[in-house]
Structure formats: structure tokens, C-alpha cells
Design a protein that fits this description.
Elements (H helix, E strand, L loop, with lengths): L2 E4 L14 H6 L3 E4 L7 E2 L4 E2 L5 E10 L7 E8 L7 E3 L4 H4 L2 E7 L5 E8 L4 H8 L6 E6 L5 E7 L1
Antiparallel strand pairs: 1-7, 1-11, 2-5, 3-4, 5-6, 8-9, 8-10, 10-11
Length: 155
């Protein structure tokens, strides 16, 4: 079973890169200078930001479906992130190093199944969830803080 993991497009976040603190605050966004790693997972390039880089903490609509599971949550985006992570059968380290909640959705945005897994052991769970009839895609969230981590599709 082949799967594809993708990060977010940088386009919606680019207008915020370089804005002053007051303007970011008007948008409900906080800027942080990374002072340790891991701890600031970028959702575009799917990597840990390194000390000295800046990240934006903002609210993101991670499940836009018009269903009871419509959801938003906080995410980090590295300022300047430009290359969307897009790989087949490869789990980025930013996922491998965390406890994840995988949520399997149908085309209408309804959850059909979900489970928690150590990111380094997630391939069997991806396979199990895609075997559920009607599953269209999977969202990964950090299990502890609930932040959206990435999307998984069949490849």
C-alpha cells in the first residue's frame, strides 16, 4: 500500500512573513524565535525549525469540510517556508518523533476510524485505516497538544 504525506501550501502564510508584531497581533498570530529543538514543527516543510529561525504560531483550519468534524487548531509555520513537503512512502522525522492521532475521513469529512500511534510505527496504522471502506484521506495530529501535523492520501 503506497501513501503520500503532504505539508501545507506556503501561500496562505506568506503575507504574514516579515510583518511587525502589532500587525501579527491583529491577526491573532504570535512570532517566536526558536530557542531549542525539537519543539517548533513547521507544517509547510514538515521539519523542526532550528534555533535562531523564526516561526509563526497561528490558527489554521485543518478540517474545512462542512461536517461536525470541521476543525481549527494552532500550528507553527517557519517564516520563509516555501517548499511544501510532498513524499510517497516516507514519514518525515517531525512525525516519526511524536505520538500521533491518525483520523480517517470519508469524502464528506466524517471520521470513520481513528487511533493513536508512535510516529515511528505509523505505517501499519495507515494501512489499516485505508483498508476501512469509505476512507478517503487521513489527518495526523500531535496527540498531546492536538496540533494538525499533516495529510496522508493514497499514492
Amino acid at each position: 500500500m503506497n501513501f503520500r504525506i503532504t505539508g501545507l501550501s506556503p501561500e496562505p502564510f506568506q503575507p504574514f512573513y516579515g510583518l511587525g508584531e502589532a500587525e501579527l497581533e491583529r491577526h491573532g498570530i504570535k512570532r517566536y524565535v526558536v530557542d531549542h529543538a525539537p519543539g517548533f514543527p513547521d507544517r509547510v516543510e514538515m521539519r523542526e525549525a532550528v534555533p535562531g529561525e523564526t516561526v509563526l504560531l497561528l490558527n489554521h483550519v485543518c478540517q474545512p469540510a462542512n461536517s461536525p468534524y470541521r476543525a481549527t487548531h494552532a500550528i507553527f509555520v517557519r517564516e520563509g517556508a516555501s517548499d511544501t513537503y510532498d513524499r510517497v512512502n516516507e514519514i518525515p522525522e517531525v512525525m516519526r518523533a511524536r505520538l500521533l492521532s491518525l483520523r480517517a475521513y470519508d469524502d464528506a469529512g466524517m471520521i470513520l476510524d481513528a487511533d493513536i500511534v508512535d510516529g515511528a510505527e505509523m505505517v501499519p496504522l495507515i494501512e489499516r485505516l485505508f483498508a476501512v471502506p469509505g476512507v478517503s484521506y487521513i489527518h495526523a495530529h500531535n496527540a498531546r497538544r492536538g496540533c494538525y501535523s499533516g495529510r496522508i492520501d493514497r499514492a
